[in-house]
Amino acid sequence: MPPPEEPTVASLPASNPAPAGRWLQSLLSPGGRAPVVRWVAAGGVFTVVNTALLYLFIGRLGMPVAAGTFLGAEVCTLLRFLVNDHWVFGHRRPSWRRLWQYHVANGAAFVIWWAATNVLTLLGVQYLLAGVAAVVFSVGFSMGSNFLWIWRKKHHHPAP
């Protein structure tokens, strides 16, 4: 006899208080961790990619820190959207709507990251270390916007 199935977000009662509570429950269920683990892995890879781009744009090409951080972030935004959309959330094809939403959400997270990177640089932190350290300031916002808005699971409730 197979073991009973663990509850999933879809099987939770409709009275569950908030999307964040449902998301936390899905994260803690055995089948719910894979997207979060892939999302974190993609974030780690793109932290390395962005650091390499910062080195290229600022360290090798001599761009100002403000311009190099902006260009590196935009390149990573486009590439990471494609990875998140397909690998993390399982969509076969990207959509303009999700790309637009991702850009809006990333815009807010980017402002947090960009400001922190530049402030840390002005405070004397080396620009590569500042870029990596600034990621800490924007991850929570990014995770929430990605899982709770752009790629949230849509639940269909039958009409009463």
Overview of the molecule:
The protein has 160 residues and is mostly helical. It has one domain (33-150). The chain is built from five helices and no strands. It has helices spanning 19-28, 33-60, 65-88, 96-122, 127-150. α2 (33-60) runs antiparallel to α3 (65-88), α2 packs antiparallel against α5 (127-150) and α3 runs antiparallel to α4. The longest helix is centred in the N-terminal third of the chain and has 28 residues, at 33-60. 20% of the residues are buried.
- Range of strand content: under 5%
Number of strands: 0
Overall shape: it is elongated
Distance between the termini: 35 Å
The secondary-structure element order is: HHHHH
What's the multimeric state? Answer: single chain
Strand count, sense and barrel status of the largest sheet are: none
Poorly predicted runs? 3-14
Feature tags:
5 helices, mainly alpha, 71% helix, 160 residues, single chain, elongated
Q: Could you provide a short overview of the structure?
A:
The chain is mostly helical. Helices cover 71% and strands 0% of the residues.
SSE blueprint:
Blueprint: H1 19-28, H2 33-60, H3 65-88, H4 96-122, H5 127-150
